[in-house]
Structure formats: C-alpha cells, structure tokens
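Kindly draft a sequence, keeping tokens residue-aligned:
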Amino acid sequence: MVSNDQRRRQLAREKYERQQQRRTEARRKSRRRNAVIASALAVVLAGGAVVYATGALGGDDDKDTTVADSAPSATPSKKAPDPCGKPAPGAVEKLSYKKEPALTIDKSASYTMSLRTTCGDITLGLDAAKAPRTVNSFHFLAGKGYFDHTKCHRLTTGGIYVLQCGDPTAQGSGTPGYKLPDENLKDPKLKGGVYPAGTVAMANAGPGTGGSQFFLVYQDSKLPPNYTPFGTIKGGMDVLKKIAGAGEASGQGDGAPNATVVIDKATVTK
C-alpha cells in the first residue's frame, strides 16, 4: 500500500514532469517561431522573374527575395496613421516582353529616375556606366509606363531596412517577362556585407534573375553582395523615413507598408 507521504511525492514528481514538458514545448515553439521570422527576413527581396527585397525577380509564380547571410531579428512595427495621399486616377497596365530590350542608353551619360509617389517625390541617380543593362531596362520600362500606378509592396524594418517596389502585381511575383544579369556586384560601396543607406538595388531570386523589382535602402542594411546596385537616392530620403515610420502590416518587421505607397508616375531622363 502506498503511504500518504509517498503519494504526495509521486504527485509532486508528476507535476514537476508536466511543468518540464510544458517548458520544453514552449522553448521548441519559440525556436520554431524565431526560425520562421528569420527565414522571412532572410528572404527579403524578390520579384517578377523574382524579387521581393527584397525578394527576387523571376517567373509568374516566383518571388524576388534578398537573402542575408545571417537573418536579423524582427522589430515589430506599431500601426500608425497613413501619412500618404490618395493615388492618382489610373490603373496598372499589364505589360510583358519576351526579351530584354536592346541597349540604347549612353553608358557615359547620367540618368535620373523620378518617382512621383503618393507619399512624396523620390529622385534616383542611375549608374549607367556600372550597370548599363539594368539602367537600360529601367529606361525602357519607365518609357512604357510599366511602373505607373504600381504599389511599393514590401517594407522591412528589422536588420534590413528597405522599401521594395517595381512589381505590377504588388505580390512579389511581378516580372517584365525577361531576366537581367547581375551587374556591379563588386562595387566598393558594398563594404563589410552592408548596403549603405541611399543605395538603389535590384531584388532577385538568385543569380541572373533580375527583372523590374528594386529596393531603396533607407538605413544601412546587412546583405550579401548579390543584388545589383545601380543607383543612389538623390532626393526623397525624408519620404522613405516617413514611410518607414508608419511601420509595416505584419508587425514582424517584414510586410506590406502601412503607408499607401503608390508610384503615380515614373520617368527616366538623361
């Protein structure tokens, strides 16, 4: 017969074992959740042929993603009022091309990309000398109205600080129908695995999968040198800071911006 004292010890032991089991399961769930968050942020930019800043630029079902060597910890964003205005009248045109446009830009010239957005104007200086095929593609697509009325669909706010745009689907899967080669990956500006604030770069889904999706770096971001840097933010950093300040929708540091960021008109001029 089990004594009352033995019974109490048995019940205490069983209670302790249940507590330990719950703690082990909680730690397992926490590790799994952190791994999911890290994976989501590690795959940051991709698009069309695949980007989603970063993400990747690929086929219709692909997503462009920017992959970091080590995933940053997520910084949840608080919901804030939308700081942007209403989009201009008009709709995204469904444009697709079978092959990359012929190289027609002047590689020795300076080109500027102007983004008139619902949140304010952003001006980008494009480096035709170092990334001629990328700049040529943007010159071509902007001339066709490809970027007009498109949403900037991704904002990251933890470890990687970028706004990703250039996807007509606003889902991370938009593509112009062709893929671009990587360019300028050995740019000396990319020191120590960092894309410095002010960088304009391509999102992709792997080597040679650039399309139309690109990301704007509003704060130094740890990324491997796998994403074609093809320009610099010349004006509108205050606009990007305003967008970032409004946070992103998932609350995990990587999702759609709370701000309604729409490119009403994009132009590339010499």
Observations:
- Residues 33-62, 66-74 have pLDDT under 50 and may be disordered.
